[in-house]
Design goal:
By secondary structure, this protein is an all-alpha fold. The chain has helices at residues 11-18, 20-44, 52-87, 92-103. It has one domain. Helix 2 crosses helix 3. The radius of gyration is 23 Å and the shape is elongated. Keywords: Membrane, Transmembrane, Transmembrane helix.
Length: 107
């Protein structure tokens, strides 16, 4: 059983998602889950000592800060879904029993 849900977000999130910042965050998402952890592993084994001074903190920043965008966006979506659900709250037990009754009705 699936249900179609429409989520309403603030205009600030619409501006953020439609801005060039979103393209940067989207590009850095791939870096934060692939290249940055790989580079930290490689640098930890002594693979690169010249650029480690600035690149290691940059990798940690990308790994930890990029997901914050998606976490905050997800929190807004979940909050909107919960508000909509609480607004349209239906007593589920009689509804379920009605559907089960129709499913197991003798013909």
């Amino acid at each position: 059983m699936s249900e179609k849900i429409t989520v309403e977000l603030d205009s600030k999130w619409e501006r953020r998602v439609n801005s060039p910042l979103f393209w940067v965050v989207s590009a850095l998402t791939g870096v934060s889950i692939t290249y940055a952890p790989f580079y930290l592993h490689w640098a930890g084994q002594g693979g690169d000592s010249e650029s480690s001074g600035w690149l290691v903190p940059a990798c940690f920043a990308v790994i930890y800060l990029v997901p914050l965008f998606y976490i905050k966006l997800g929190a807004e979506v979940i909050k909107s879904i919960h508000a909509k659900r609480d607004q349209d709250k239906v007593d589920w037990f009689p509804l379920m029993m009605n559907r089960l009754g129709r499913l197991f009705r003798h013909r």
